[in-house]
UniProtKB/TrEMBL annotation:
An annotated GO BP: base-excision repair
Family named by the database record: Belongs to the Nth/MutY family.
Record protein name field: Adenine DNA glycosylase
Residue stretches making up the HhH-GPD domain: 35-186
Cofactor note (record): Binds 1 [4Fe-4S] cluster.
Domain of life: Bacteria
Keyword Hydrolase: yes
Length: 351
């Protein structure tokens, strides 16, 4: 029997019941696939349901403001995904009358849509024979065919893409791709694959040779760069000073407590005080450290200390992109990841 037949037979009995599988709406598949990048299925389910309740169609999403969209994405991280989704949906509304195009080049040209997402949308929504190769599929195929090249490098990725193209089912390409997603999530998992339960075990070269635990070959990732930050918790009349991050770059456009990257040998409190003075013209005393957090992104790791600060003189007019903000209104703004946790904790302390 071929890989596709075994896989689909298993899928018919074991497919996961996921909210985005209840219909074949390409917009919903698009939303779920973007949310699932870098995020676990269990964590995505609630976000997905809330999102679809608020933005049930491309038109509803296209009309929403970026700030509202980011608020609905709050907590999922990698916010450029939400911005790209919004830009892509606006393009679909402007150029395709609100219906997802059916040609791979057109789908692939939408902001934030890579080969994998295009393959998932086209195969599931339109039954097109297009592979959807992500980390799961790379892992499964490198084991099935005992590929010993570095799976993160382009030649191995191209080899896997070609193999999937050969194996993908003619009649049910969407189910074939989804079966691979489920196999990667439940059976052919990264550590200790459950080979005895695997539907394609009899065709798996890695299993036959007993090397399934050492595949795929992967070059070690670089550790994220450590960045030290001091952040100010400055309160006036029950409101905190917050500011908006620049429109481009990490956590672009999100809101946070003012924070400075620590660079020189001065004590942290002095650096924070000097920075608040130079940027906001604020005279403050930096008091005790309230909270310390470590937050890891793909390429950097923030080591943050949040300091209570006290105003020493009347605050001047704030620059653009800064404001005094009541934490009771906290969920109306898209917060930059770790700052949201601190805002929630501060609000909790007051209740
Ligand atoms: S037999 Fe094992 S290694 Fe091979 S595909 Fe199945 S789970 Fe993965």
């Amino acid at each position: 029997m071929k890989i596709a037949a075994l896989l689909l037979d298993w899928y018919d009995k074991n497919a996961r019941d996921l909210p985005w599988r209840r219909d074949k709406d390409p917009y919903k598949i698009w939303v779920s696939e973007i949310m699932l990048q870098q995020t676990r299925v269990e964590a995505v389910k609630d976000y997905y349901e809330r999102w679809i309740a608020r933005f049930p169609t491309p038109g509803e999403l296209a009309r929403a403001s970026e700030q509202e969209v980011l608020t609905y994405w709050q907590g999922l991280g990698y916010y450029s995904r939400a911005r790209n989704l919004l830009a892509g949906v606006r393009e679909v509304c402007a150029d395709y009358g609100g219906s997802m195009p059916e040609e791979k080049e057109q789908v692939r040209a939408l902001p934030g849509v890579g080969d994998y997402t295009a393959g998932a949308i086209l195969s599931i929504a339109y039954n097109r024979r297009v592979p959807a190769v992500d980390g799961n599929v790379l892992r499964i195929f490198s084991r099935l065919f005992c590929l010993e090249e570095d799976i993160l490098k382009a030649p191995a990725k191209r080899a896997v893409y070609r193999l999937v193209q050969e194996q993908i089912d003619r009649d049910r390409p969407g189910d074939f791709n989804q079966a691979l997603m489920d196999l990667g999530a439940m059976i052919c998992v990264p550590q200790r694959p459950r080979c005895p339960e695997c539907p394609v075990r009899e065709l798996c070269l890695a299993y036959e040779r007993g090397v399934q635990e050492v595949l795929p070959v992967r070059s070690p990732k670089k550790a994220p760069a450590k960045v030290r930050l001091a952040a100010a918790l400055l309160e006036q009349d029950g409101r905190y000073l917050i500011c908006q991050r620049p429109a481009a770059g990490l956590l672009a456009g999100m809101w946070e407590f003012p924070s400075v990257e620590l660079k020189d040998a001065l004590p942290e409190a002095d650096q924070l005080r000097n920075w608040l003075q130079s940027v906001f013209l604020l005279e403050v005393r930096v008091m005790e450290a309230e909270k310390q957090l470590i937050h890891t992104f793909s390429h950097r790791q923030w080591h943050m200390t949040f300091y209570r600060c006290r105003l020493l003189s009347a605050a001047p007019e704030l620059p653009d992109k800064a404001r005094w903000f009541s934490l009771n209104d906290g969920d109306r703004l898209p917060w930059a990841g770790p700052h949201h946790n601190v805002a929630v904790a501060l609000r909790g302390n007051k209740e």
